[in-house]
Amino acid sequence: MTSLAPWWLYSSQAVTIAIAFWIVIRDRLGKRAARARAWSQARQMERERIARELHDTLLQAFQSVLLRLDRWGKDSGLPEESRNQIKEVACQTRAIVVEGRDKIFQLRNNGKACQYVANLVRADGGVETALAQVKFRFEVSGRERPLPIDVAADVLDIVREAIRNAVSHSGCDAVTVKMTFRNRSLMVCVEDDGCGIDSRVLSERQRYRHFGVLGMYERASVLDAKLMIVRNNGCGTGVILRVPMRAG
To answer: At what angle do helices 118-131 and 149-169 cross, to 10 degrees?
Structure first.
């Protein structure tokens, strides 16, 4: 007559089998998650490569064309009708550049919740000023923290518009951008040494068709940020943007 093994022996065997089964399942799930992470990382790296190629080739080519159009549009030696047509083409080209930059931003940030913005500002400022042969200075102080994607996009657009206005309208020799990361805020200052902004543009910006300036204020309002555009006492214009941030 065969004797049965004690109940606790069967119980311990069942536990051992369950543990082994759990280890196998965890290992498979871990490998699957690792493959998914690797695939996602590879896809993001490819997106960033495409974004760099677009920025360094096609977009800079459009920037060069835009610079030439801007200069021709201001050439008093050309007939007024020709200058107006050139300005229309320049507006269309600028819209293409803006849309291209937005697409590049989306490529770089697909699937991300936050973005470090300082290097993007540095790169954009370098391109905007280099085409116009204007010196560009860039400074960052404090511990940089990533911004939510929509906030980073608006900050980048505001700073980009400030740099573009300085290069296009002030006749400046240099543009300086300073970014200061504080515990609860980000401060961005864009300064130029040009002729200084017309006070009428600040008080009646839409009337004088400065929709870029109007857009800067609108974006700042969406961010619940403070934006100041001032004419410096000596010369030039200062654009100061203060964006609230969570402490951390």
So the answer is: 20
